Amino acid sequence: MTVDNVWSDITGLMPPKAVKEPKLRNAQGETFNDPYEWMRDKDSERVQKFVAEENDYCERRMAGLKTLRGTLFEEIKTRVQETDMSVPTRMNGYWYFTRTEEGKQYGIQCRVPIRGEDDWDPPSISASVMRGDALGGEEIVFDCNAESEGHDFFSVGGLDLSHDGRYLAYSVDTAGDERYDLRVRDLQTGEDFPEVITEVSGGGCITPDGKWLFYTRVDDAWRPYCVWRHRVGTPADQDVQVYNEPDERFWVGVGTSFDEEQIIIESSSKTTSEVLMLPVTDPEGEFQPFIERMPGVEYDVSFARFEDDGGDIPVALVIHNVRNPNFEIDVIDMRAHKPPYTLGEGMRVAQGSPAGCEPPQGRKFTPATRAIRYESVSSLSEISDNPEILQGVQGLRIEGIAMYRNFVALSYRANSLPQLAVMPKYAAKEDFLAGRPWGFGGIVPRVPGKLYSIGMSGNPSYDAPRIRYTTVSYTQPGELHEYDPVTDTDVLLKRSHVLGDFDPSDYAEKRMWVRVRDGEHVPVSLVWRRGLVPALEGTKEGLTDELIEAPRELILSWEDMSARYDRREAPMFITGYGAYEISSDPSFSVPRLSLLDRGVLYAVPHVRGGGEMGRAWYEQGRKLNKMNTFIDFIDVTAALQRNGIADPKRTVANGGSAGGLLMGAVANMAPQLYAGIEADVPFVDALTSILDTSLPLTVTEWDEWGDPLHNAEVYRYMKQYSPYENVKSADEREQEFGTRQFPAMFITTSMNDTRVLYVEPLKWLARLQEPEVEVDAVAKIEVEAGHGGVTGRYKRWQEIAYENAWCLAAMGIEE
C-alpha cells in the first residue's frame, strides 16, 4: 500500500495555497527573490492562518493512518516498563535515583540517605520497590509531573544541589524557547526562596555552601554570552554580571569543577575555547584564565590529585588540540607554578592520530607531516608513546580523562566506535612519576556480534571505589555495570527491560563500509530482524571489514531503477546527521522494533561532517567540504540498493535539524533513490539564515558552514546546496534525472524553536507544494514546543507513532 492508497478516500483535497510576495535578498552581487519571506512575521494573522490550515491539511491527509498510529503507539507502550527506577547513585550524603510511574509523563527525582561513609553499595532494590513502593527514608527531590501542571510544554534546564543536599537550584522552560526561569528550593522545608531569575540560559550552578548562584543569560540572537552572580535570598535585581563575552562566535557556560573547589566559566566557539576559574571560597573575586585563549585551539581541564603519604600531588588534566587535531591529554603537576599554564605543558598521556587531518591552527606542514596528512583517515595509528591499547586502531581521537581516588578512566574513539579504558589509580601514579606510557586496559562489552556504545555513567563521587559505565547496541538494551580495575571484577547493576516477547537474538546488526565516488570508505550500520531481510541472512555481524561499491552513475529514471528490482529487496529506513562533529553512535530504541518487525531494514550512514572517524571526518564534511556529507548519504543509499539489499521504491530517509538540511539536499540531488523523506525541524533555508547576523546562532555558525556574508566563494558553494533555493520543478527534474519523481515529504517543525526557526521549514513547504513542483508534502507544526518537539513520554510516543506510520505507509506497509 502506497501513500496514495492510504489517502485514496480523500478526493480533491489540495494543500493550502501560500501567497507569493516578492522580497529581494542581495548578497555577493546576486539578487534572490524570496516569495515566502513574509512568513517570518510569526505573530501576523496570515502566518497564523497558514499554520492552522497546514495542520488541518496534514490531519486530514493522515486520517487514513489513524489505526496504524494507534497500533504503533500501543506497541511502544506495551514494551516499556512504565513503572521503573534507576540504580541509585551516591553523591555526598545521599543515594539519588529517578522513578517513573505508569500514567505519568515525567520522571521523579528521589533520594535516600547513605548508611555510613563507607556505604558504596547501592540500596537493595526489591520487586515491590520496582513496582513503585518507596525505599526506606525515601524523599522526593523534584517531581516534574507536579511542577508541569498547567503547562502544555515543560522542560528542565538543570538541577544542581549544594554539597549538603539541602538547597536545590532548578530551572524550567514552559514555552520551548529555551529561556528558563531559575529558582532555589530549600528541600528541608519544601519552599522556594522568593526570588525568581527569568530569561536564563539553561541551568545555573549553586556553590557548595548553597549561598551563591552563577548563571548565564542570552543576547538577542539567543547566544549565552554573559555570566551573573546571585546571592541566594536577595532580589534578582541586585545580581552582578561577572563575565561578558563580546565575540559573537562564542557561547558561555558556567559550573563547578568536579572537585567542587572552583567555579568554572567556559567560553567556546566551534573551533576555540577558554576556561576561567574562581575559587569557591572567594565567590565575589575575579575569574582568571587557566590557559589564555588561543585562536583555533580547543581545550578543557579537570582537577584531581595523586594521594601521597608525603603530601598529595595536585594535578590538572588538560585535553587540547594545540599540537594534534585529534587531541592529546597532558597531566600538569600544579606544584610547579601557579596558573596561568600553557598548552602542551606537563606529561603527555595519550594523543590521537593526525591521519587525514588539517594542520593545527597557525602551523604548516613539514614534508613528514604532509605525508601523514594525506594518509587515509582509516590508516592504523602507531604512535610510540601512546598506551598500548591505542596502537593499531583507525580514526583515533582522544575524548577525555577522569581521575578518581581509586581509578583513572580514558574515553576515546577508534575504529568508528566510542571506547573506554581504565586503570587503577596507584598504577597511574607510578607511570606518571616514572614518565612512561600509562597502562590502561580496555573495557570490552562481553557480547559478540554487536555494535556497542560505551561510556562512563553515574560517577559523581571522587571517592567511589569502582567505575560505573553503560553499554548499549542497536539490538541490545542498555546495561549499567560497575567495574573494579584492581580486582578486575565486573558487576551488572541493571539491564533495561523490554516487555513482551522481545528477544535480542531475533535481531541482528552489522557495520560495513561503502566506497563512495571519491574513494573514501564510509561506514554504515545496518539493523534488521532475522529472517526478514534475505540479502543479509548469514552475513558476518558486528564490526566488519566488508566493503561494497557505490555505483558510479546515478542518473537513472525512477522507472528504470524500479525495473531492476522485483520487491524481494527490503524496505529501508535510512537516517543520518553529519554535522558539528557529532557521531551517530549505536543506541537502542523501542519504537524501532516496530519497524524491524515489519521487515524494514534500518540503516545509518556515518557520513562525513560527523565525528565517527575523528577530526578528519568532521573537517571533510564542513564548510567548503559540506557536499561530501550529501554525496556520502546518496552513495550509501545507492550502494545498498544496487547490491540487492534495499528497494528504492520502498526507501524512506530521515534526518533532523542539520540532518534535515541533509534530507533537503539529497531529495534535490537524487530524488529517484527515495520513496519518501521525513525531515524534522529541518535547516533548509541555510543561506538566508547564515547571511543574517541578526538571527539566532548565525555568527556562531560561520565556523561550521562558512561565512557567505564576507566570502563570495562560500556564498556560491552554499548556493549550490541550500535546499529551499534548489527545489526543481517536475519539468526540470525530468530534464535532469529523466523522471518527474520526487519523494513524498513529511516535515515537522515547532513555532517556538530557537535553533532552526519555524520559518525555514514553512517556506520550504510552501515551495514544495507549488503545483509545478508536483510534490506530495505535508507538515506537522507544533504550536507549543521548541527544537526538541513535545515533552512528556506519552506525548513523545504518540509523535513517534505518528511519524513512523507515515514512513511505513510510504514504504507500502499498511499494518
Automatic annotation (TrEMBL):
SUPFAM superfamilies: alpha/beta-Hydrolases (SSF53474), Peptidase/esterase 'gauge' domain (SSF50993). It comes from the Bacteria. Residues 587-812 form the Peptidase S9 prolyl oligopeptidase catalytic domain. GO terms for molecular function: serine-type endopeptidase activity. One of its GO terms (biological process) is proteolysis. Residues 19-302 form the Peptidase S9A N-terminal domain. Keywords: Hydrolase, Protease, Serine protease. Belongs to the peptidase S9A family. This is Peptidase S9. It comes from Bifidobacterium tissieri. The lineage of its organism: Bacteria, Bacillati, Actinomycetota, Actinomycetes, Bifidobacteriales.
